[in-house]
Each structure stands twice: as C-alpha cells, then as structure tokens.
Write a structure and sequence with these properties.
Largest sheet: 2 strands, antiparallel
Radius of gyration: 18 Å
Helix content: 40-55%
Number of helices: 6
Structural class: alpha+beta
Strand content: 15-25%
CATH architecture: Roll
Bound molecules: nicotinamide-adenine-dinucleotide
Length: about 140
C-alpha cells in the first residue's frame, strides 16, 4: 500500500492556502482559480484550520451570511484531522471515513507539507489494483 509521501510525489507540489482574516469570497476565488475544493488555513506559518466548499454551503449560504464580509476564521473547521507523510493510503481512507472529511493536511512535525484529497486516495488505490491485475495477466499469459 502506498504512503502519503508517495501520493504527494505524484501530485503538483504547489499547496494553496489562505489566511484566517481573508474573506470567504477570497477563499472561494482561490479554490475556483486552482480548481480545488479546500484550503488549509495558515496563520504565522501554522495550520489553524481548513475551509472547504462544505463549510461555505453549510455556514454561509444556508445561514444567509455574506461571503464578502464573513472572514474565513468564522466558518473554518478548527479541529482538522491531519496525517503524517508515513501513513498509508488505507489509514488515510479510514481516517476520512471516520471523521467524515474529504481532505487531510499533511504535517511533518508542525510543518504543513501537503494535502491529500479523497480523489488522490481513490486514484492511488485504482492504480495499485491495475498494477496487480496487469501482473496477474502477465503471469497467466506466460
Ligand atoms: N486524476 C487524478 O489524479 C485525480 C486526483 C484527485 C482528484 N481527481 C478528481 O477530481 C475531482 C475532485 O477531487 P476531490 O474530491 O478529491 O477534491 P479536490 O477537488 O479538492 O481535489 C482535486 C485535486 O486538487 C488537490 N488539492 C485540493 N486542495 C488543494 C490545495 N489547497 N492545494 C493544493 N492542491 C489541492 C487534491 O489533492 C487533488 O489532487 C474528483 O472527480 C476526482 O476523481 C482526480
């Protein structure tokens, strides 16, 4: 089973983040510009939260708040489940299922070094299964 480090190697290394005082509208703009569904919230180089399309839907739209005047800190998830680079894809999947989240920031000590999404994990699992199938096909054909 692949580790988080191996998943990160296959991805664009640029991590998009936002500050807690930015407006929700700015966060949405960053998400749209980079076609991502979540942003780790970073303050003074430290991870302090995470904002995703889910927080926007449930804590802005549904409550009839303004995305222009609401700061990210007011709606961000603060108890963010995180993983270390050595964790396996399977462990990440279990954590996502347990905590009902789709994005896991990756921390090396206190340092934010990346993020894995549910799509990254599904892709890693499918790639591994396809590799096993091709090996079995080769074995059967030989
Ligand atoms: N083909 C691929 O390699 C691949 C990988 C992941 C997701 N997807 C597809 O994209 C769609 C949405 O994916 P999702 O639900 O996993 O979430 P998503 O839209 O948030 O993530 C899409 C990609 O952007 C990356 N990403 C997310 N937030 C980021 C951030 N703040 N900074 C840098 N990178 C960030 C993710 O790690 C993932 O690789 C799904 O249809 C999924 O199947 C495809």
């Amino acid at each position: 089973m692949k580790t988080v480090t191996e998943v990160l190697i296959g991805k664009d290394p640029e991590l998009h983040t936002i500050g807690p005082d930015a407006s929700v509208l700015d966060a949405l703009r960053v998400m749209a510009e980079h076609e991502v569904g979540a942003l780790p919230v970073v303050d003074g180089g430290r991870l302090v939260g995470l904002i995703s399309e889910r927080e926007y839907a449930r804590r802005v739209i549904l409550l009839d708040r303004s995305s222009r005047t609401t700061p990210v800190r007011d709606i961000m998830m603060t108890r963010v489940p995180c993983v270390e680079p050595g964790r396996t894809v399977e462990e990440c999947m279990a954590l996502m299922t347990d905590k009902r989240v789709r994005h896991l920031p990756v921390l090396e000590g206190e340092e934010l070094v990346g993020l894995v999404s549910i799509g990254d994990l599904v892709k890693a699992i499918i790639d591994e299964q396809q590799f096993i199938i091709s090996q079995l096909e080769l074995y059967i054909a030989s």
